[in-house]
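Please supply some protein, with fold tokens.
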Amino acid sequence: MKQRYFSLLIAGVLGAYALTGCQKAPEASADNDVYRAKSSLEREVENIAAKEAAVNTAGTDGAKPGGSYDALVGTEQNGIWICAKIPAVPQAVPVLVLRERDDLDTEKLRELLDSESGKVRDITAEYVAQREKELREMAEEDKPGECLDFGDDSLLILSDGSKEASFARNTCASYVDKTLKKDCDAIYKKAPEVDAIRDSTAASAKFSISRAEEILQKKLEVLDISEIAVSEAFYYELDGTAFYELSFTPSYKKLGVASEFGSIRLGEVFSRGTAWITENGAADLSLVNFCGKITEQSDRGNILTFSQVAGILEKYLESDTLCGIAKAKLTQVELVYYPALRESELILTPAWHIYVPLKDMMDSLESGDKVWQKVAEKGAAWNIYLDAVTGELMKVE
């Protein structure tokens, strides 16, 4: 992930319709509390979502949970080719409401720092002063733009000289062991990059990805984070130094939060964790919009089967709500939580995600692949989030 990796340090460390006469009023659809007549497409989608899923058997519809789907949805003129494994999913998944935490204090930050020296200083004021100075001296066009944040305006940074840790907005955290980080930095651009998820046999048998995840999980115990979903893992080894570069999101009862976002849009909050993990512990750790606590959960109905999802996608393609390139394979299907910010709360809604990894698409574009060049030129869908209960399109790129 060498060119793709970015260290997410906290705060820089880090639309009325009226009817007259005796006509029957149309069914209503709510958009931001403004009611309008439901479209025929919305009714078609609702009908598919409301139907009891037919029993899937191997070789019938290709969408058997735990099996594979390899079929064109739509037409050759406007279609989406899905070629992916279909995960087995729960019948129902609750919507979660998260708020900022109220326990990310100095004592807990000391635990995260885990200093051996005991000479721990609060360097928050120093950091803020330095950051303000840098911003004053920065050209206007180079200043960072405003981003959508989850949480408040709090910030706390502790350091013992060799380690540094911070909490921000009561939803974010970071940690760095400067000695271990220096060792990793020394080989980062030199060592071969091994994708440990796609090629698990190429990474070290001595230092396995499972061991790296154990070390990371142990470090996260301080923050009461008991479950994560790893989306990327790259392994580097050279001159006796080895480490994994991990990308991960929160996970709730084995369901991770969306990690393949493309561009971030208004109302979206990108929850993300990154870490460099050595055999001797975490060298670098960053949790952004990650540490919220569950304050409410509610059930909305049963999760759509993938057969229903395929039927709904076909309706969107028929109506030209979706644009697809029939020859471009979307190779990944997953059930995830899709995050959206509502005032001070982060709403996590279960969503079916059908996509091709951004890295794969970029590699195809760089290699001159004509199919993916056509996808880019037409703005065809390669990254689709669909509400897993209602079938509503949540995000399309």
Q: What stands out?
A: Confidence is low (pLDDT under 50) at residues 3-37, 53-61. The first strand starts at residue 28 and ends at 31. Residues 124-137 form the longest helix (14 residues). Helices lie at 40-50, 106-113, 124-137, 178-188, 209-220, 306-318, 358-366, 370-378.
